[in-house]
Amino acid sequence: MLDTDFAREDLFAMIGRLLEIDKHYARKENVVFPYMEKHGITAPPKVMWGVDDEIRNDLKGLLRFSQKWTKEELVTNVIAATKKVLDMISKEENILFPMILDTFSEAEWATIFAQSKEFETSWVVNPPAYLPQLVIEDKEESIIQSGSVLLSAGALTYEETNAIFNTVPFDMTFVGADDKVKFFTQGKERVFSRPLSVIGREVKNCHPPQSVHIVEKIVEDLRSGKKDHEDFWINFKGMFVHIRYYAVRNEKGEYLGTLEVTQDIAPIRALDGEKRLMDE
What we know:
This protein has helices spanning about 10-20, 20-40, 45-65, 70-100, 105-115, 160-165, 210-225, 265-270; strands spanning about 150, 155, 170-175, 180-185, 230-235, 240-250, 255-265. The protein is of the alpha+beta class. The chain folds into 2 domains: about 10-115, nmb1532 protein domain like (Four Helix Bundle (Hemerythrin (Met), subunit A)), CATH 1.20.120.520; about 150-270, 2-Layer Sandwich (Beta-Lactamase), CATH 3.30.450.20.
């Protein structure tokens, strides 16, 4: 039982520390779940992701309202939130990990370890390497193509094309007409993490369960021609992020997929006056 005389400030700091479990959940949802889906295990990830979000919201609520609650209310809510955290740990240890240990191949585990570097770890500073040399699945190896790609206004080599996509100052993710992720850029300053495991993943499985209906509505509006783009903007980790979804169509107007373009526009919003010449 939590001591009701415990200093609120200390408890506040401990809750903030516990909220680092969000990093663990993000790795699990974005790196482990895609491989479960590839093996036809789809229901457990959806349920678990929903509970993960409940835990996130409960912990954030503790930080938001802990100064307003009475000690009794604080105790009740802290106990409820930490119980959910412990229950999830139990489900992971007794259900999730035994299930995937019997399912994933060594190559898949090696790939998961490699892609996990896209995400921070919870409390662990230097996680040990899984294998001395990582084995990446053939289907996820880079295919270096020779020659050039003929475009509507010029031609580019594979190297040039890849470099251009990874140089533009915004993130781009393309979802094909089959609603599966086909491509994303890998620039130096990315807003959202994108592990290679999302390639081939259904776009609805790349989002929390409670927002899936929004994603599906956006894609359907773009597919049907009702809209050509949809815009959103949010405050995220000190950035003002502009997110735009475009319908991608061929010359005949046929829907090829959806392109998501994400950019931190805070520096652009802060511009003032003019700059016509280069700085000395």
